[in-house]
Amino acid sequence: MAFPIKRSDIDWRDYWRLLVRRRWFFVVPAASIFLVIFLWSLTLPRVYRADTLIRVEEEKMINPLIKDLAVSTSVRSRLDTLREEILSWPRIVELVTKLDMAKKIRSKLAFENLVEDIRRRIEVKMKGEELITISFEDRHPAVAQKVVQTITDVFIEANLMSQTEESRVAIDFVTRQLGVYEGKLEHSEKLKTLYEIHVRLEELERDRTIIVEQMSGQRKVVVAEVMTQANPVMVHLRERLAGLEMELTDALVDSTEAHPRVIMLRRDIAETKARLSQESESIVASEKSTTNPIYQALEERLKSMEVEILALHAKEKELKEVIGIDTGEKIAQHDLATAERNNRVNEQIYAMLLNKLETAHITERLEASKQGTRFEIIEPPRLPLKPIKPERLKIIFMGLLLALGCGAGCVVLAETFDHTVRTAEEARAMLKLSFLGAIPKIVTDEDRTQARLKREEELRRIISAIPFIGRRLQMLEKFIHV
Hints:
The chain is an alpha+beta fold.
């Protein structure tokens, strides 16, 4: 209306008369919108959803490989990880391949769109503390069931394979490292053996030189050498001298010549050598020379020394070839000390790796005994018989509300832009004049009859159109389902 009227002058009859007068502004938009929404609801395809329920049982025993290294987490806290793993690209691609869902795909872009569409329609959520629900929506119930079944099998199989793969990789890695450190330990042992051979060769060469000189005519030395070999005092002094020299060699590895320990060892060595010389002279002076037996003994010793020297040279050459050392190169005491320190470290690492290898085998047996994390299908996916979408009643009801609202809005707009004066109150408000009276509209019986006939004709048209619309809607629904 163009002119305001006091609220006290308006009652519900005014609104009813307004609605009757503007009925076509209400009926046409409302019916059109409702019909469009109704037809649209019929065109929506039916969507089915298949579900499966999986129980995730935590490890009954702590995995030895992660003991003291990781904190155990619940299934709920790992839900995001499990969801991403189920919806990961490799899992969806494997699903598409197994179900042959890409047989009509001709381009990479279309394949990617297919994968993304499948990922969007898969839903993973928790149900309780240890239950996971996997669902999938599709227009075909059989496809929905197959997709859920396949993605469940793929997920469980991948988890079992990953657990086994972790143990196998750990075992292979530890085994390779054990081989590496076995080689290092063997190298250290061969280096030590090579040094011992070198020391023994030096001793044999020195003894052989002495024996050759003795056999050439130095009788006194021969007697002294032979007699002192059997003398307990000389044996004790030689052992003491050898021990002091070894201590001096070890001390020089970490100390200098000015160290008190080194000075004391050199003094003891000098005193021991002096005592050896004195004892040798006294033995030579007291014992008688027996040339022939001594010479024969020296000759036998020389032969045995030469045989031992040849054998040691052959073994030394073989070890140097294995280790990779030049034939003429000699092993120093400092190199031996370094090798021994490395050998101790390698032994500790080797023992640790043996422990890890046994731990990996225990883990493998643990998984084989099904004491680790297990996935159990509580409720397999069933063939859905009832669609979950579209909810036509809800859509139709919302469409009805929208249609009524739009119809009422059209009535209000039509009345707002219509400036026709219909009542005395409107005329008085527009002209601001006083009126003596108003002549009402005279409606004759003929006018009432024509109006009634017109309403009946409109009603007959609407009733006659209902079966036609119903048949068309049934045909449309059948076409959509086909």
